[in-house]
Write a structure and sequence with these properties.
The protein has 281 residues and is of the alpha/beta class. It folds into 3 domains: 108 residues, 3-Layer(aba) Sandwich (Cobalt-precorrin-4 Transmethylase, domain 1); 103 residues, Tetrapyrrole methylase, C-terminal domain (Methyltransferase, Cobalt-precorrin-4 Transmethylase, Domain 2), CATH 3.30.950; 49 residues, no CATH class. 41% of the residues lie in helices and 17% in strands. The chain contains 12 helices and 10 strands. The strands form 2 sheets. Strands 3-2-4-1-5 form a 5-stranded parallel β-sheet, with helices on both faces. A 5-stranded mixed β-sheet has the order 6-7-10-8-9. Helix 11 packs across helix 12. The longest helix is centred in the N-terminal third of the chain and has 13 residues. The protein is elongated, with a radius of gyration of 24 Å. The termini are far apart. Bound molecules: S-adenosylmethionine. S-adenosylmethionine binds next to helix 5, strand 7, strand 8 and strand 10.
């Protein structure tokens, strides 16, 4: 398949790169990087190592948070002049807590074609192996450092009933966990660290337990939090087991379904609930 366009205006390729394991570089990413004219990279020295590994030799230009404005204009000019450009970040998918948004928005305004070249993304891989609900989730990036903004974001998270994903740096982990505990209370949390690398690990705990271990935890990490309990579920927690059973019975559920539902609401094993209602018709 011929990938690179030869139209008058170039195309911007958003190319994902590995988040640790170089074998996660896709064949298509290699092909595109070999075929385009210029690579815009977050850190050119870092990207050069990747290019050398795959025997790719291309002109590099830097595109990072602090020059996004100026460099976006230059990229647009080059694209309009017919150059095909690949945007890469230091690791993973550009635009996800990495530069990219601005040039992408500008390309849309200027009717320049943008093509994603999919690959690694830390938050998606952390989520799929977390064991938490993957049907609906909210990615919240990094928590802000500014006290007021941080409090606002934490308060927003407090009420999200879907799985919440956060990025965090190891030296800020303990503080972040303590802040999460203060606003959210104790909750199920999964810490996924060093994804795709030798020391890849998933710590499926609650916030309190992770706080105890925080000082020892090193490497790159993603935090995945169980969503807040829905208001109705919260109300169910205040009921006795009998009342809880009655609540579902009134809704027309059969014994098996009721037990399954109660176990889910209370986050306990089904058998535990079954034992309580063993003689119930
Ligand atoms: N664009 C990247 C992506 O697609 O995941 C994210 C870039 S962001 C600047 C860096 C953060 O991503 C790290 O602080 C960490 O939270 C997460 N991260 C990146 N690589 C990781 C890895 N191998 N294991 C766990 N988390 C990782």
């Amino acid at each position: 398949m011929k990938e690179i366009n030869s139209k008058e205006t170039g195309t911007l390729y958003i190319v994902a790169t590995p988040i640790g394991n170089l074998e996660d570089m896709t064949l298509r990413a290699i092909k595109i990087l070999k075929d385009i004219d210029v690579i815009a990279a977050e850190d050119t020295r870092h990207t050069l190592k990747l290019l050398n590994h795959f025997d790719i030799s291309k002109p590099l230009m830097s595109y990072h948070r602090h020059n996004e404005d100026v460099k976006t204009d230059i990229l647009i000019k080059e694209l309009k002049a017919g150059k095909n450009i690949a945007l890469v970040s230091d690791a993973g998918t550009p635009g996800i807590c990495d530069p990219g948004e601005e040039v992408i928005r500008k390309c849309i305004e200027e009717k320049i074609t943008i093509v994603p070249i999919p690959g690694a993304c830390a938050m998606i891989n952390a989520l799929i192996c977390s064991g938490l609900d993957t049907k609906e989730f909210v990615f919240m990036g990094f928590l802000p450092l500014n006290k007021k903004n941080r409090k606002e974001k934490l308060t927003e998270i407090e009420n999200i009933t879907k799985t919440v994903i956060l990025y965090e740096a190891p030296h800020k982990l303990e503080t972040t966990l303590k802040d999460l505990k203060e606003i959210l209370g104790n909750r199920k949390i999964v810490l996924a660290r060093e994804l795709t690398k030798i020391h890849e690990e998933y710590m499926r705990e609650d916030i309190d337990t992770l706080i105890e271990k925080a000082k020892e935890i090193k490497g790159e990490m993603v935090l995945i939090l169980e969503g807040a309990q829905k208001k109705e579920e919260n109300h169910l927690m205040t009921l006795s087991l009998e009342e809880h059973y009655q609540y579902y019975q009134d809704q027309g559920l059969g014994k098996k379904e009721i037990i399954k539902q109660i176990a889910k609401d209370r986050n306990v094993n089904k058998n535990e609930i079954y034992q309580q209602f063993i003689n119930k018709k």
